[in-house]
């Protein structure tokens, strides 16, 4: 989230899209209701009517997978009707930048596309630079190649007629949403966009979010109270886990994973440290060598020196372009390229797409170590229905896990707030938390490497690794410490003391930190700030609900990102009634500013978007693998075979794996004409591996069902409560029919398209509940993140004579 949960109450207009916030984030939804009570308009754009829809001013049904068409229509509406905040757009975004002549967009494809490799050469996606290397600008926004005019031309195709025909949203609903939300494009109003997995789990997931960024920049809704782009995480610590490297392509603090073509420490820093010659650009990533060096010192301690490149040579390095995400991991496993592994705290046999394939893939391992609270479809994969355990070679070890109430530590919520939770009770018997199991296990591995050697044993033996697991100890290391006596802004720190802020981190080996973003969370002066529970605020802070002394927020306890975009060049709030920060003549007051420089009018200030190389919000965003501007592409499985925006049907660069089990339905396949979307339930957490073992939750939601409209039910001869079979080209699933007006047919390109929805939280290890919905979903993913397209695939449905266990 650019903002935080409480800040939602400051919004004048709230667009919830790709999320059922009331049911999946019920505690946070209270802030939506606070905003509504204060007069805000709440709009819910979603294929299904839900509790969120019921509490909104209006619900807008949409065909899943067409969000960019919907958002592109709103961007076009804002541009055509002059509803953008011009001063903000000119001063704080790259709308005025001149794009180089080599950049083109023709019929669904950007310049540089290679159809053989299915990739883009992005060299033409750049800006014209002046003699000093600063992007050329046209503040009048009249230059034909300035970003503003390229954007206007790009989205001119997204008129209400075209958008309606593709999305299935009525013209009246489009007009209503566009008019309402774009009214926030003034300094005295703010609108926020709330999204969740319904937006990310698509082959265009990243560009869905880019469309929101563009819209919010046009309206001046970034950096302000009640504004922002706010991701609703599906689990309490998703934000923390990504900050600390849940994903294969990054290391802690969102720095790039070392690659084979960056063989040395210097080569890594050169490739990953942007250079800006604009004196008003903070270009904050220029400090990356300080954060990277401090991380290496955290990993290898005194063994990491300048002479050996801080042990960079010991790090594993992935090949350029390599993909080690789930989709490709299980494909390699399916092809017998992996012999063993650890699966801890997750249930991929239930939650990874094309589950029939991934379950077979797991059979190919020689050994598997799991650690769980309960038996799951993953721990027990070797004796799933229809499989003879004697024919599965995998030796499976199941380690008992402690429950979250049986351990202490931190979680980082969606708003980037770092909070501490205490241990309620000791775990029973031999159960351990993941950390308490992993740390001593790693010590045994280190001992073996020291004794027996192996390939590059130093990568393991030289690690700065503790003998026992202590969450408070790790929290201190994550913040960072001085490795020698140091003076920072006149204050003396001794070796081993806590680093006060990431501005004190250095690339000379004098500091270590396991995550630069969290530096400042555990200091000598403030202790463990995750434990803070002080509601004290200044009057200015209380006006917008900032609570700066409650827990701690990365970075540097800043609650609203890019908050210097909420003030003018003199440092005065654009909206004084809901000021985030303010220059009082000597210093900034309110939230922690994103940089302590004086206001821009002083001549010594910096542009507000400090993480961008040139300091401006990126309307034109080079760096994405599928284009610098969002473009509508159909889901890989789609009920139509053309659309009015271009001849390019689906993303030309979406990711996929190719095996005999990875079949895809052709566009407009008459055998699979129905759009399936999947979702979570309030009563079951994620894949249900834990909550299916809680009797009252299982009683509330006891079995797999499929929601369908009365019109589809009548067409198929299905009554509410009937057993049905839902089938994709990859497999079949049994479910109970829920015939409901919450789902409705849509008119798409003049024909009726039916949508159905299914939860994914049930599995065969809980008798009588059914099995994984993900046996239906395809192994295709976003080209930037490889997140699978769970939310839009094609199926058919029929009434079942009787329900029996279906294997395929």
From TrEMBL:
GO terms for biological process: anaerobic respiration. It comes from the Bacteria. Its cofactor is W-bis(molybdopterin guanine dinucleotide); [4Fe-4S] cluster. InterPro entries: Asp_de-COase-like_dom_sf, Formate-DH-alph_fdnG, MoPterin_dinucl-bd_dom, Mopterin_OxRdtase, Mopterin_OxRdtase_prok_CS. Residues 2-433 form the Molybdopterin oxidoreductase domain. Keywords: 4Fe-4S, Calcium, Electron transport, Iron, Iron-sulfur, Metal-binding, Oxidoreductase, Periplasm, Selenocysteine, Signal, Transport, Tungsten. Gene3D superfamilies: 2.40.40.20, 3.40.50.740, Dimethylsulfoxide Reductase, domain 2 (3.40.228.10). It is found in: Periplasm. This is Formate dehydrogenase. The lineage of its organism: Bacteria, Pseudomonadati, Thermodesulfobacteriota, Desulfovibrionia, Desulfovibrionales.
């Amino acid at each position: 989230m650019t903002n935080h949960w409480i800040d939602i109450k400051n919004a004048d207009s709230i667009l919830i899209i790709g999320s059922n916030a009331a049911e999946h984030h019920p505690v946070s939804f209270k802030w939506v209701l606070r905003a509504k009570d204060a007069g805000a308009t709440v709009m819910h754009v979603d294929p299904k009517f839900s509790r969120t829809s019921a509490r909104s001013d209006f619900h807008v049904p949409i065909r899943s997978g067409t969000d960019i068409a919907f958002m592109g229509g709103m961007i076009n509406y804002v541009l055509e009707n002059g509803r953008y905040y011009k001063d903000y757009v000119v001063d704080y975004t790259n709308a005025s930048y001149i794009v180089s002549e080599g950049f083109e967009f023709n019929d669904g494809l950007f310049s540089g596309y290679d159809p053989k490799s299915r990739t883009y050469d992005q060299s033409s996606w750049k800006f014209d630079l002046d003699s000093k290397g600063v992007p050329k600008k046209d503040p009048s926004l009249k230059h034909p190649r300035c970003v503003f005019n390229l954007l206007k031309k790009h989205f001119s195709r997204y008129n209400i007629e075209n958008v309606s025909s593709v999305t299935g949203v009525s013209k009246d609903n489009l007009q209503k949403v566009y008019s309402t939300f774009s009214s926030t494009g003034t300094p005295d109003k703010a609108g926020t966009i709330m999204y969740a997995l319904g937006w990310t789990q698509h082959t265009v997931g990243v560009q869905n979010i880019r469309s929101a960024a563009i819209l919010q920049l046009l309206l001046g809704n970034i950096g302000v109270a009640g504004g922002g782009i706010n991701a609703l995480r599906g689990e309490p610590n998703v934000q923390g886990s990504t900050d600390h490297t849940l994903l294969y392509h990054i290391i802690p603090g969102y720095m790039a994973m070392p690659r084979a073509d960056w063989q040395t420490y210097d080569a890594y820093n050169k490739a990953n440290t942007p250079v800006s010659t604009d004196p008003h650009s903070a270009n904050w990533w220029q400090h990356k060598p300080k954060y990277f060096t401090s991380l290496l010192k955290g990993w290898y301690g005194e063994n990491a020196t300048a002479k050996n490149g801080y042990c960079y040579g010991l790090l594993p390095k992935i090949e350029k372009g390599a993909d080690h995400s789930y989709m490709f991991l299980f494909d390699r496993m399916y092809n017998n390229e992996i012999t063993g592994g650890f699966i801890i705290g997750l249930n991929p046999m239930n939650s990874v797409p094309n589950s029939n394939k991934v379950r077979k893939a797991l059979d190919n391992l020689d050994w598997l170590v799991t650690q769980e609270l309960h038996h799951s479809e993953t721990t027990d994969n070797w004796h799933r229905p229809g499989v003879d355990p004697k024919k599965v070679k995998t030796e499976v070890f199941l380690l008992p896990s402690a429950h979250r109430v049986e351990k202490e530590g931190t979680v980082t919520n969606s708003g980037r707030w770092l909070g501490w939770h205490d241990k309620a009770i000791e775990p029973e018997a031999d159960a351990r938390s993941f950390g308490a199991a992993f740390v001593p296990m790693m010590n045994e591995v280190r001992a073996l490497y020291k004794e027996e050697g192996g390939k590059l044993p130093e990568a393991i033996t030289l690690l700065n690794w503790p003998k026992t697991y202590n969450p408070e100890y790790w929290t201190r290391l994550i913040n960072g410490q001085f490795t020698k006596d140091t003076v920072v802004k006149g204050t003396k720190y001794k070796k081993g003391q806590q680093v006060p802020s990431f501005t004190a981190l250095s690339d000379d080996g004098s500091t270590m930190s396991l995550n630069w973003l969290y530096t400042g969370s555990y200091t000598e002066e403030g202790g463990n700030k995750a434990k803070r529970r002080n509601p004290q605020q200044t009057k200015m802070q209380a006006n917008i609900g900032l609570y700066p002394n409650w827990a701690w927020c990365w970075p540097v306890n800043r609650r609203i990102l890019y908050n210097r975009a909420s003030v003018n060049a003199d440092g005065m709030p654009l909206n004084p009634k809901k000021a985030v920060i303010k220059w009082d003549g000597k210093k900034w007051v309110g939230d922690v500013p994103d940089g302590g420089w004086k206001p821009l009018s002083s001549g010594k200030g910096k542009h507000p978007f400090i993480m961008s190389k040139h300091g401006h919000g990126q309307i034109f965003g080079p760096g994405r693998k599928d284009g610098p501007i969002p473009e509508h592409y159909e889901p890989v499985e789609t009920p139509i075979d053309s659309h009015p925006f271009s001849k390019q049907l689906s993303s030309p660069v979406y990711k996929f794996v190719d095996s005999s089990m990875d079949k895809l339905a052709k566009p407009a396949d008459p055998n699979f004409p129905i759009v399936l979307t999947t979702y979570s339930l309030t009563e079951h957490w994620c894949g249900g591996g834990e909550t299916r073992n809680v009797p009252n939750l299982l009683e509330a939601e006891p079995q797999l069902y499929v929601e369908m409209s009365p019109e589809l039910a009548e067409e198929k001869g299905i009554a509410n409560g009937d057993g049905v079979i839902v089938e994709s080209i990859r497999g079949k699933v049994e479910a109970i029919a829920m015939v409901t007006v919450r789902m409705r047919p849509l008119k798409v390109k003049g024909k009726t398209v039916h949508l159905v929805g299914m939860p994914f939280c049930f599995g065969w290890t809980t008798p009588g509940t059914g099995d994984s919905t993900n046996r239906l979903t395809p192994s295709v993913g976003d080209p930037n993140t490889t997140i699978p397209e769970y939310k839009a695939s094609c199926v058919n449905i029929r009434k079942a004579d009787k329900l029996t266990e279906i294997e395929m």
